[in-house]
Amino acid sequence: MGLPSSLPNSFRNQFNHSLAHFLPEGTPAPLIPVLILIETISLFIRPLALGVRLTANLTAGHLLIHLISSAVSAIFPLSISASLLTFTVLILLTILEIAVAIIQAYVFVLLLSLYLQENTYGPPSSRLSHS
């Protein structure tokens, strides 16, 4: 989601600023190819890393809830009080999982908007010099 929305938007709005993002001002000539390569890789890796982070956090919560719900079904025939305690923990973890999902969505949107802003208008230092 992050990559398709950030790249076309940045190149469509201000093409020169988008290309200037790859090469900082005052870069020595021998470093130009290396910096362009590093910045290009960074441009593609940022949104992918953001998506992987979001997926990993949400998957970990789902796995934890699944494991505890399996424990509830395994403990229920043995002890009703223990299964009620485990079920209460399961409800609390579900509430925690919802809170984590909301926080992850907020962080995803915040970082994606920062990446879009940087790709569209350039880094903060270049915005100060243009105004």
UniProtKB/TrEMBL annotation:
Keywords: ATP synthesis, CF(0), Hydrogen ion transport, Ion transport, Membrane, Transmembrane, Transmembrane helix, Transport
Membrane topology: Multi-pass membrane protein
Residues making up the signal peptide according to the UniProt record: none
Any one of the GO CC terms: proton-transporting ATP synthase complex
Cellular compartments annotated: Membrane
GO molecular function: proton-transporting ATP synthase activity, rotational mechanism
Reactions this protein catalyses: H(+)(in) = H(+)(out)
Pfam families, per database record: ATP-synt_A (PF00119)
InterPro entries: ATP_synth_F0_asu (IPR000568), ATP_synth_F0_asu_AS (IPR023011), ATP_synth_F0_asu_bact/mt (IPR045083), F0_ATP_A_sf (IPR035908)
Transmembrane segments: 31-51, 63-84, 90-116
Assembly description: Component of the ATP synthase complex composed at least of ATP5F1A/subunit alpha, ATP5F1B/subunit beta, ATP5MC1/subunit c (homooctomer), MT-ATP6/subunit a, MT-ATP8/subunit 8, ATP5ME/subunit e, ATP5MF/subunit f, ATP5MG/subunit g, ATP5MK/subunit k, ATP5MJ/subunit j, ATP5F1C/subunit gamma, ATP5F1D/subunit delta, ATP5F1E/subunit epsilon, ATP5PF/subunit F6, ATP5PB/subunit b, ATP5PD/subunit d, ATP5PO/subunit OSCP.
Family (UniProt): Belongs to the ATPase A chain family.
NCBIfam families xrefs: ATP_synt_6_or_A (TIGR01131)
The protein's name in its UniProt record: ATP synthase F(0) complex subunit a
The organism of origin for this protein: Aquarana catesbeiana (American bullfrog)
Classification of source organism: Eukaryota, Metazoa, Chordata, Craniata, Vertebrata
